[in-house]
Amino acid sequence: MTNSATTLLQEAQGAFLVAALYHFARLHRFADLRDPLQAVCDENGVKGTLLLAQEGVNGTIAGTEAGIAAVLAFLRAQPEFKDLEHKESRAVAMPFLRMKVRIKKEIVTMGVEDIDPLTIVGTYVEPKDWNALISDPETLVIDTRNDYETAIGTFRGALDPQTKTFREFPDWVKNSTGLHNKPKIAMYCTGGIRCEKATAFMKSQGFDEVYHLKGGILKYLEETPPQESLWEGACFVFDDRVSVTHGLGEGEHTLCHACRQPLTLEERASPVHEEGVACVHCHDTRTDEDRERYRQRQRQIELAKKRGSKHLGS
């Protein structure tokens, strides 16, 4: 494919390259990396969020091809991140408002001490082998994501813990009966990082055969033809695209700015839906004062759009 043809294809898919990444490492100098990493992102017009902690790096960023390449090159130049992998998709519009490099205690918050994916972790399963594993009647499939994510898409037959946050997952495991009824446990999440800790936790709880989808749902949707897929629905993503589908094309969902729940076309057609103010999920739980405050914010968002800018509170 010629350079011009490649450029046209990329423009059709979306002008911005989105890179999702994480890497567990012994990163004792994580605080010292914050400012240089922020500077590289800013200098190259890259936006998004990157988390640094003693256990590594995690985040999603968006920008031009050259901008993303510069940030990834900076990260891989660090000895701790030389083997860092990332997943790519595209966005029609810049899906982030700003660039934030944050220092955290954990790059994915489970809240359990001594869970270290560098020491113990489940067995990685490539997307091409995932269907066979989860179709095996001897396998229990567990979705490690939260309830608002599973609501818009999941693998057929998967067990949904219905957690509000990842911190609830360990208690769910400890309090659930029947998890030992099948010899194999197969787990998945959006990009793979939650399963690093979830499978490590399951191993610590005495589960022997624990597997997880390498690269997460994103890699599966990228590599698996729709006609062969066992995925149903869309995959929630933590940026302005809200969801992606097979081939990592942008989904139909938008986000309710009142309750942060993803909304389908049908839900947006509900008579109780008011853009930026209320939706079918939160209409009955908000006061009139809440809704008036949201209306004022929505007016500011719409004014910002007319000026060709983004309202930071949106």
UniProtKB/TrEMBL annotation:
* A molecular-function term among this protein's GO annotations: oxidoreductase activity, acting on paired donors, with incorporation or reduction of molecular oxygen
Does the keyword Ribosomal protein feature in the UniProt annotation? no
What name appears for this protein in its UniProt entry?
A: tRNA uridine(34) hydroxylase
What Enzyme Commission number(s) apply to this enzyme?
1.14.-.-
Organism of origin: Ferranicluibacter rubi
> What is this protein for, i.e. what is its function?
Catalyzes oxygen-dependent 5-hydroxyuridine (ho5U) modification at position 34 in tRNAs.
The record's annotation in SMART domains points to: RHOD (SM00450)
Where does the source fall among the domains of life?
Answer: Bacteria
CDD domains noted in UniProt = RHOD_YceA
